[in-house]
Specification:
- By secondary structure, the chain is α/β, with parallel strands linked by helices.
- The longest helix is centred in the middle third of the chain and has 23 residues.
- It is globular.
Length: 280
């Protein structure tokens, strides 16, 4: 086994699981930002308010990971599409493990609601921060690859004023065809249209109504065609109760002090009411 396909649906502990793997195993991935892993960790988890949870997210870049020379790779799938899932379960399964991290539907909807994620994603709330994240990410990436003779730019909007050769070389080295492609890679929801709260609540109730029983818990309906075809299914609460071993042991690893400390840190980012739900 050399690769992991880590799957989850919003509000199930996807980033908790990713960072637990990064801190406790030799599996690695590439990110949108070309920074040291410790800097990415600090940037991502610099969360001051739970309803701004998504503001600081730094996303793994599966294309970069695929093209890298990493030996043990993590491919990260939030809300995996039909094609992404089909590819995972039909291609080279002898060289990879497909994992689903999940939780019960009520916990999932609660986490989504307080973090303005998943069903309760708030496009208007996030747009300003997303634009800042795209700008910061682009300037950082450009500065990391620019030749010493290239001009300094301080805003993504200045990129279009550079000569065509520099623009083309930058696009080639960073792996995008246009600024719009780069923005969507950094913030996949940047162009998402806001949905009225009444419709969000209706969608949440429909998901709850269409949930099904798995291992004694009602879980999200979108898991139904996947959870019986994955290699490893891990309940979020089990990850918490075992200090991460529910996720790590099936892969041949044990939790580390850094992993244990990270789980405690993650729990404490949530309000007291939510912490009780997570550890019950």
């Amino acid at each position: 086994m050399t690769n992991i396909n880590l799957n989850y649906y919003g509000g199930s502990g996807g980033f908790l699981s990713l960072w637990l793997l990064l801190l406790s195993t030799d599996f690695k991935c590439m990110f949108d930002l070309d920074e040291d892993i410790s800097d990415i960790k600090n940037r991502h988890w610099n969360i001051s308010k739970v309803d701004e949870w998504k503001f600081t997210e730094v996303w793994p870049n599966n294309k970069k990971t695929k093209d890298s020379d990493l030996k043990n790779k993590i491919f990260y799938f939030c809300n995996p599409t039909h094609d992404e899932w089909r590819n995972q379960i039909t291609s080279n399964r002898q060289y990879s493990k497909t994992i689903i991290v999940y939780t019960d539907i009520d916990t999932q909807l609660h986490l989504s609601r307080i973090k303005r994620a998943g069903t309760f994603f708030d496009a208007a709330h996030h747009r300003h921060q997303n634009l800042k994240s795209v700008n910061d990410s682009f300037i950082n990436s450009y500065n990391n690859i620019k030749d010493v003779t290239w001009p300094v730019i301080n805003d993504i909007n200045d990129f279009g004023s550079l000569n065509k050769r520099i623009q083309d070389e930058t696009k080639s080295m960073l792996g995008f065809d246009s600024i719009e492609d780069f923005a969507e890679a950094v913030c996949p929801d940047i162009n998402k249209i806001e949905t009225p709260i009444a419709i969000k609540e209706q969608q949440a109730e429909e998901r709850r109504t269409n949930s099904f029983i798995y291992n004694g818990r009602k879980v999200a309906p979108e898991l139904k065609d996947k959870i019986y075809n994955s290699d490893i299914n891990v309940l979020l609460q089990d990850i918490i109760h075992t200090n991460g071993n529910a996720l790590l042991n099936p892969l041949g690893f044990n939790t580390t002090k850094e992993g244990c400390d990270f789980i405690k840190f993650w729990i404490n980012l949530h309000p007291e009411e939510t912490q009780k739900i997570l550890i019950q």
